[in-house]
Amino acid sequence: MNHATFYVVKPDSPQAEAAGFADYVIFLAQHYAKQGAKIYLCANDKTDAEHYAEIFWQVTAEQFVAHNLVGEGPKYATPIEIGYLGAKPTWNRQLVINLADVNTTFAKQFAQVIDFVPCTEKAKQLARERYKIYRQAGYQLQTIEIQHP
User: What's the whole-model pTM score?
Assistant: First the structure.
């Protein structure tokens, strides 16, 4: 069965700020990659994707996980591929970390989806819409409040 996990960002958490959120996304991607998952990180657009790729290069050597932008990298791919709306992920990805506001059309391609419920009301509404789409697609859903300091 396919799974979708929504991480709820609390307004008073470090993840409510852009830098804290990006750090948490990197943390999750590294966590799943170290478990052997092939990850597709889906940003809103090419600029956001390039921004996340740059953040992955800025981690310490101990934290580094091989990654590439969609369409770049080795033939059999790195553990983390970073793309955006309209870009096609490599065929061998099992898990998507969705950072896009509205995209869920890829959901059936992945066994596991990681998504977020941000703090702003508009972002929460968009997350609710994505949640409904995953539920209608038959995903087993869970919600987790981020407890990361």
Answer: 0.91
Token pair recorded at residue 6: 């929504």
Assign 3-class secondary structure to 7-23. EECCCCCHHHCHHHHHH
CA distance 138 to 135: 5
Confidence tier at 35 by pLDDT (50, 70, 90):
very high
Instruction: Please report how many Cα atoms fall inside a 13 Å half-sphere around the Cα of residue 5, on the Cβ side.
Output: 11
Of 84, 73, 89, the residue nearest 39 (C-alpha): 89
Residue 78: name the closest of 123, 118, 33 by CA: 33
Q: Could you state, in order of their start, the residue ranges of all structural domains in the chain?
A: 3-145
Domain 3-145 sits in which CATH superfamily? DNA polymerase III subunit chi (3.40.50.10110)
Q: How confident is the model over 83-134, as pLDDT tens digits?
A: 998 888 887 888 999 999 876 666 678 889 999 999 889 999 999 999 998 8
